[in-house]
Amino acid sequence: MHLIVVSSLDALCRQQACEGLAAAHPGSPVVLHDLLENGLVIRRVYSGPIMLERDETMLEHGCLSCAVRLDLVPAVDRLIEENQGQPIIIGLPPAVPASVAVSALDRGLGRPARVSSAILACAPDAVEDHIWDPHTLFESGFTPVADDERTPGEFLLGELAFVDTVLPAEPDIVPADPVGRKRGLHLIREVAPHADIAPGAAAVRPGLHRYAEAVARTAPGTIQEPRPDGNGAGSPFTTVFQHVERPLHPGRFRQALGILAQGCCVLRGQLWVASAPECRIAIQGVGPRVWLENVGGWPEGRPGKQPAVRALAPAAATVIAATGEDLDPEEFERLLRNCELTDEELASGEGLHDPFGLRPAS
Description:
By secondary structure, the chain is an alpha/beta fold. The protein contains ten helices and 13 strands.
């Protein structure tokens, strides 16, 4: 039994994608979950335009992952037994990551089934605006969970890394913007070079999902190689890749970080910072928000090994990729090179101030 998981930032894009997929797979059941205020989960199951069932469950904590684990998995398990042949289409609540659902389904189902497609449904002309939205998902009205501090851009970038397919949507509530749509598609191709962008639901290719590869792509600090065929003619977006092999001076890097991130839609990579040399530091920037994360020791006890998917420069300890418009690779490299420790600083071996608080607690 094949499962198709659809994630989205909003219910309109999800609805359009699920309706299209149902039309492309006649007879397939469609399971839609919605999380409302106060932890109320509504589950609806459709066959074509006909609603077969509707159920409500109250979750004690209103947790997104609990909604998936406690309600979705049993419902899908039952549908697998009742429904032989056609895939089951699963529309997740808005802002629920596909990785949560796929992981729960892999672990929790009692009957043979596999996720053949993990799809992000989104309006391309809104992607750039979502990336630069400084508000949380709750503040922007995408989730009823008040303590969810992710931004819309963080959710979208996480999904673009995990899913195998992007299904563009054009919600009728907002007139389509052809120029914005074209820009959005270029941006999606730039930040998710692995993803298949389907022109429509009928063109979604089954069997593209590889869970281990999807998890590896979302690991903090991971950088993917650019598309071998480029991003297409006329793309306004480029990605600058830079790597350095010496540790970074934490003070100089802190001063340079604002300039490095300026104008970048997405900033990602790994750092070797002299104030915490034993730690691999992941850097992630989405729109206006940039953060560093200590992700533990270096593989094999030393810097220079990038985990997971097709490392760009395995020999480099610091590897950064910046995506945006009008980026200057030479200026980017100059800023990073100025952050490297000098020969004198390397020779002194003196401890350095840790302005980012990266050292593990002793």
